[in-house]
Amino acid sequence: MNRPANNVLLIEDESKIRRFLRAGFELQGYAVSEAENANDGLKAATFSAPDLIILDLNLPDLHGSEVLERIRSWSNVPVIILSIISSEDEKVRLLQAGADDYVVKPFGMAELLARSEAALRRYFKSATENPVVVAGPLSVDLVTRTVSLNKQPIRLTRKEYRLLHILATHVGLVVTHDQLLKDIWSGNQRDNIQYLRILVRKLRQKIETDPNHPRLLVTESGVGYRLQARFEDIAAD
Amino acid sequence: MHSPLPIASKLAKPGIRNGKYQDVAVAPNTSVAPRSFLQTDIVPLLLSLGSVSLVTALLLLLEQTVAVSLVPIAYLLPVVLAATRWGIWPATLASIASMAEADFFFFPPIFSFQVEDPQEVVDLLLFLVVALVSSNLASRLRQETETLRQRERDIQNLYDFSRRLAACFTVSELISAIENYLALTLGQPAVFFAAKTDGQLEPPRCGPVPRVVNENVTSAIEASAPSVRSVIDSATRNVWLLRMVSSETAILGLVAVNIGTGSTDTLQIRTRRVDAILEEVSLTLQRIDIEKAMEDARLRLQGQLLRDAFHGTLSHELRTPLSAIRGSASVLDSIPVVQKDERIRSLVEAISDEVAELDGFIQSLLNATRVTAGGVTPHLEWTDPRDIANAAIKARARRLVAHKVETDFADELPLVHVDSGLIEESCGQLLENAAKYSPSGSTISVSVRRKQSDVVLSISDQGVGITTDERPHLGRRLFRSQRHQASIPGSGLGFWIASIFVGANGGSIDITSAGQGLGATASITLPGSAMTKPETTVASNE
User: Fold this and answer.
1) ipTM score here?
2) B75 FRET partner, CA 20 to 30 A, in A61, B145, B288, B464?
3) Calpha distance B350→B355 (Å, rounded)
4) Per-residue confidence band for A207, with pLDDT thresholds at 50, 70 and 90
5) Residues B539, A198: C-beta atoms closer than 8 Å
6) CA B163, B169, B170 angle in degrees (round to 5)?
7) How wide is the angle at C-alpha B267 spanned by C-alphas B261 and B273, nearest 5°?
8) Shortest CA distance to B194 belongs to which of B252, B116, B151?
């Protein structure tokens, strides 16, 4: 797809961080704009209509989660959170508040780029015609509901497919336990995370080369699961 | 003033109110008891007679100028004087004497107690009635004034005492204040038996105590019942009051006060004073309790704030520049020119590695403050133990890059109910130790197995091993073996943190080593899941 360069807005008060983020994104062909506080960031988000926002949690004038909430009140633009706090609860809270993903400082640029691409892909997916999600050797046709591994069709149970479907529509992005439990069990088993663990085990048996070392369906400790878009994502960090 | 019962109850340990109450009986009426005529001193009677005679003498001198009708009025003076100064009995005597002397000297026939004019008889009787009524009124006024003065003195004393108590900030200051004050106001010794933590009493710090008092103190404690009693020392006839002194939270001890000898009235008054003083003491004790609680809370809060500041500063001030270095290095790493030049690339790698190490160290410090703060509250959820091992290996990938990491996971592993973050961190610490204490290129094996109902996560290395000397010290904070202090960097926090994190999840860490140079195996044992088979099948049905 030959679209013009994606605009990324960096809302981050530390100039040292902004500097390398700008370099990293520009090297990958993004157009970058910057804001050093929440106020400027919210203005820029409104007026320059960015395709992606990188939002630091620790801003001088307003907490990042508040900024996220305000952006979410009028826009679905992908937002990736940068934070120093790495508590699982905080991550889950931010994801539930509408963040597309998070990256914990210190992080490598490759990790942030992978998350950004995944978020953009999901954001622009409605514009693309292709209903097939490809993750490494795995491809999921969301319309015909068929799954194939190395071009060989595989059979999944209804719940296994449901799980894979949700992850595939968020390919490359983390999906929280809560969301998975809610979508798969329609809210009946929301507290029974062990059902989810066992379902994941069963799905891994079918789609992973080595279920003991999953490379496609990876665990985000205490937060949720992620369907890796590319194998390089693992090697990159 | 209060009756002594509620005061005693306040000072007593709860539950002993119904104990044996051996106290001297105290009448609820607090005014000074009326004294009988026989107890009245003879001097006020003589003085009142004298003052009546003085008035007679003056009237005789002024006989020519004073009208007879004024004579009874003049006699009211000594009557009122006697009533206000000496009380009701001297005043009554003065009234009768006045009437007699007036009749004898001034009413005809003079120098006779006979009265001629019936009108004058009425005058004299009227005088007597007026004199008796006014003497009664005046003496009652006097009595009440006296009572009020006594109360004022008591209140003043208590006020002084409470001011002294206000300056008490510790229990021992309070105890010496009680002893001093009781001894000072009653003029008799008071001794305090401080309670020890085991419920026994310490011997008093000062003054000899009669044996019978000591025995009673002991029995009072042993019976842990009547905290309020009075004991009579048979040798001196002195009465000792025993009172328990306690705050709302603890019994401080027992105070024994000698209230001396004397009539029941005297003893009653002294008992009331002692009880009033001890009530003041119990209020002060409550205050000291509250102050202590507030001080504790303040210290806790300060500690909390300091810790939070430490957390915030460490996290933000150190990690922000670290993020900039790490991020910048990663951007450099992605530039084709850098990737092509092996020398530059290795420099960039070195930057990233060092940052990872620094970040690991900061994480250890943060974990350590979390542990010392007593703030490790695991957030338990069902987790696949393989996910924990994989996540730990991935998180420490940079530190493990020089080693070969082999994994061996058993089939059919149960889920574990743990805080995956804490166990992952512990596992990471053990991996880091394995990498640190074993040569580059050697193998680190990670295995997850089932052992009865438990799950054991083991990390084995081919490194320096552990000597028998070092064994007992493992798991102590800041312990680092002499062998490695110069050669291998470290904080001595890692294993300590790992042990505590695992412990908080109900698990344990065990380290085995065949000896020096023979490698070591660290095993995390996590309690087995209570999950039953039917539950595991629910998910697989469809």
Assistant:
1) 0.81
2) B145
3) 9
4) very high
5) yes
6) 125
7) 125
8) B252
